[in-house]
Each structure stands twice: as C-alpha cells, then as structure tokens.
Specification:
The protein is an alpha+beta fold and 96 residues long. It has one domain. It contains three helices and three strands; from the N terminus they run αβααββ. A three-stranded mixed β-sheet has the order 1-2-3. Helix 1 crosses helix 2. The protein is flat, with a radius of gyration of 14 Å. The two termini are 20 Å apart. The mean pLDDT is 83.
C-alpha cells in the first residue's frame, strides 16, 4: 500500500509539472507524458490486480527508474494510472 501511495504522490508531482498542468502564468515542460493502462477485467483475479498495482508502484521507487525520469532535458515526466475492463469501464486512479 505504501508503494501505491508513493505512485500516487509521483503522479501528483508529475501533474504539477506536466505540460497539461497549467497555471494562469505558465506551462511546465516535461520529457514524457506516460499513461499506464492496467487491465482489471474478469480475465485476471483480484490478487493479480493487486500484484499489478504494486508492481507499477514499486517500479517508481527503483533507482534506475528515478534516474531515467530525471535524465531528460526537463528532468520531469507526467504520469497517469488508468484501470480499465472494457468500453464502459475505465477509471483514472492517479490523475495527471
């Protein structure tokens, strides 16, 4: 759960710094706008869904990922995490 919270925090930071995040005065440039789209359909179990969520969240804590995120010219990326199961079932869990 702590990893999911960290991913949410990173997503929030990404939102604050994303090219989509606009204040009245400026737009912040990012190197990448990443959409993580995770399957939560009945083709995978609830346990597998949780493993999937934890895996994505834990990835953002890895030094290699942090180094990659900060290696671009702007040293920032924007991330959103979406879960989907079909045409009428999509949830943006972590907004930009």
């Amino acid at each position: 759960m702590r990893c999911l919270i960290a991913a949410i925090a990173l997503g929030y930071i990404g939102f604050q710094n994303s090219s989509l995040a606009q204040s009245k005065d400026s737009i912040t440039e990012v190197d990448l706008e990443l959409v993580i789209a995770a399957d939560i359909s009945f083709s995978i179990s609830v346990g597998e869904q949780n493993i999937q969520r934890r895996g994505y969240a834990q990835a953002f804590l890895k030094p290699e990922v942090i180094a990659a995120v900060t290696s671009g010219p702007n040293s920032k990326i924007a991330v959103t995490y979406v879960e989907w199961a079909g045409p009428g079932t999509q949830f943006q869990v972590v907004p930009w």
